UniProtKB/TrEMBL annotation, chain A:
Residues 27-224 form the ABC transmembrane type-1 domain. GO terms for cellular component: ATP-binding cassette (ABC) transporter complex. One of its GO terms (molecular function) is transmembrane transporter activity. InterPro entries: AA_ABC_transptr_permease_3TM (IPR010065), ArtM/GltK/GlnP/TcyL/YhdX-like (IPR043429), MetI-like (IPR000515), MetI-like_sf (IPR035906). Its main location: membrane. This is ABC transporter permease subunit. PROSITE patterns: ABC_TM1 (PS50928). It comes from Bosea caraganae.
TrEMBL record, chain B:
Keywords: Cell inner membrane, Cell membrane, Membrane, Transmembrane, Transmembrane helix, Transport. The chain crosses the membrane at residues 20-47, 68-86, 98-121, 196-217. Residues 23-217 form the ABC transmembrane type-1 domain. PANTHER family: ARGININE ABC TRANSPORTER PERMEASE PROTEIN ARTQ (PTHR30133:SF2), CATIONIC AMINO ACID TRANSPORTER, MEMBRANE COMPONENT (PTHR30133). GO terms for cellular component: ATP-binding cassette (ABC) transporter complex. It comes from the Bacteria. The lineage of its organism: Bacteria, Pseudomonadati, Pseudomonadota, Alphaproteobacteria, Hyphomicrobiales. It is a multi-pass membrane protein. It is found in: Cell inner membrane; Cell membrane. This is ABC transporter permease subunit. One of its GO terms (molecular function) is transmembrane transporter activity.
Amino acid sequence: MNWCDYPGYWVGSEVLQNYGCRMAGGLWITFELVAISVVLGFALALGLAVARLYGPKWAQAAINGYTTLFRGTPLLCQLFLVYYGLGQFRLFWQDVGLWWFFREPFYCALLTFTINTAAYQAEILRGAIQSIPRGQFEGALALGLHRWATLRHVVMPQAMILALRPLGNELIVMIKSSAVASLVTLIDLMGATKLAFSRSFDISIYLYAALIYLVLVEVIRQVWDKLELRLTRHIALR
Amino acid sequence: MLDKFALLGFGDGGWGAALLQGAFTTISIALATLPFGLMLGLIVALGKRSENIVLRALATAYTTVFRGVPELLTLYIIYFGIQILVQQVFHSFSIPPFVAGMVALGVVLSAFSSEVWVGALNAIQKGQREAASALGLSKAQAFRLIVFPQLMRVALPGLGNNWMVLLKETSLVSVITLQDIMFITTRANVVTKEPFLFFGAAMLLYLIFSLISAWGVGRLEARANRGYAAFGGATR
């Protein structure tokens, strides 16, 4: 017996035992999707938020349009547009040598999730930077700090603490939203669960999947709370 | 290129009418879910603030569960779950997808909106209830006449957010065969093999709904805050 057969064996659920390994594999896909897209999205969002606030006018307008578009439309719709819509231009992608990327549902989901979460995270970071009091900028200026140095050493460390909680919420939202990846034939946790249900017609498999997602989200919530407590121990936030 | 756009039109072989029908379904399910979800959310919020420890634990467990489980999974569980439960009593019964979608989205909305309600309820000063009770109002009267009218103003930004999330979540009901925007565009894609055009159109429709919603919520907030402008309070 593989390790992934045991949970089903312990709780005495035949369907969970039969599909335990598939669901473990699906959980790994979900994990990969969320971890990579949230980290890439964060890197992207940092640049976007700074450019949105201090960049040239045209960049500000473009980033504003980007965040409005991706925060104003459903993730499912974006995913279909990337996977089916961009896949329509197969000949073009083959010409530029990118077809291997747009052919794979995994890469398409990764791209969509990254773009989507970057839009949300950019807005979170922008809000956090904007709520840093003006005096901090002026103080840094008075000390002769360069604009970049001000941002890096004075503003960002404070803004990140403010952004911590909403960023944690965004991570949780991404874990939940990643379930839509199952609708473009990807076997993530949700996809594996659907597969198990369509073969066994045992509704309890959905409940086990719900439990797994729930535990995942709760663990992250707890870890994030601890993280926040540790990072803010020098200031009395609460 | 132009004949491609004719596919979105209302002429022969055009999908314009079907898309409008889909847009109507999307709006209908969102509007039908809203009051149900908000009312349930308020009840859950009152449960969370109740003095009864069992009620409090139940309400907390409810929000933890429905905020932690993906909406798609909740939708499947309610759609198939109710189906199987009811079929054990009445044979050959199928639950309308609209009802299943409404219940699933409403339950999720109630979990999220209950957080907003709790925050708003906490923002109402204790003195308001005490004064109401001093005037001889019952608890229910105090809530209806004193607390609730003040509640809306504080809760509106959060609830507006909930509405925007709900609007986007309705795209999921296409998986239980409800013929919303996503369902129609998916079918149009199968027939015409023009996914970029149709999913692009779907994006545009959702974007328009979101922009209108943002504008509407802003107007509502301005209206709810109109009494506070004189104090230089939070107004738009």
